[in-house]
Amino acid sequence: MIAVRDLTHRYGETTVLDGVSLTIDAGEFVILAGPNGCGKTTLVRQFNGLLEPDEGRVEVDGVSVEENPVSARTSVGMVFQHPRDQFVATAVGADVAFGPENLGLDRAEIDRRVDAALDAVGLADRRDARIDALSGGEQARVAIAGALAMEPQHLVLDEPFAGLDHPARRSVLDRLDALVTDGTGIVVVTHDLRDVFDRADRVVVLAEGTVALDDSPDAIRDDLAAFDVRTPGC
Q1: How would you write the pLDDT of the chain (234 residues) with one tens digit per residue?
Q2: Which CATH superfamily is domain 2-227 in?
Q3: How many CA atoms lie within 13 A of 30 on its CB side?
Q4: Residue 69: strand, helix, or coil
Q5: I need a labelling partner for 192 at 20 to 30 A (CA). Which of 38, 145, 157, 207 fits?
Q6: In whole angstroms, what is the distance from residue 229 CA to residue 143 CA?
């Protein structure tokens, strides 16, 4: 479980998040929505300690992220909006292995995780391929595999469909569906809900640094237009 408690975050004198409280249960599919600049990315980067709150705290499975960021980064996998931002190696397999290697696992366990992660995203036959030779959709799946190799309880994806064509979007969505079936919690950060709205258990909308809406998709469908998010049919 991810628990955000009275979290405030500032950039200089600008308050981006103002007393946000939120709980995300294991196995939930949650959409974090809202207009550009509302603090979505700032919030999720505190789930695994990439950013720290100015006030409040974040806990993952009851453990403070600030006090134990390694535990948080093992439990919460992060896929950035632009996959290239997180690649650290030239070849697919080497990049996916990077996280497990930094956990100090033995070679057999690392190889097992890499094989399982690449299989999960349909890239088992591309282990030796150069990342820069892959399509945008394939690169997105490599980024997901890198997060999966850490065997997280939650997978957070920040605008995962930005810049992807329809086949690539379809491919990523198919992988997310499979992960949900396997019990992985999913948090999708987006201002465009059309691909994921009907898949979600909850939609959380941020506005002006606070949680403006938090309910099931059907319960808040008619309220979303006021928050500059795109819903099915728009």
Answers
A1: 999 999 999 999 999 999 999 999 989 999 999 888 889 999 999 999 999 999 999 999 999 999 998 889 889 999 887 777 789 999 999 999 999 998 889 999 999 999 998 988 889 999 999 999 998 888 888 998 898 898 888 999 998 877 777 877 787 788 888 888 888 899 999 878 888 998 999 999 999 899 999 999 999 988 888 887 777 655
A2: P-loop containing nucleotide triphosphate hydrolases (3.40.50.300)
A3: 23
A4: helix
A5: 145
A6: 25
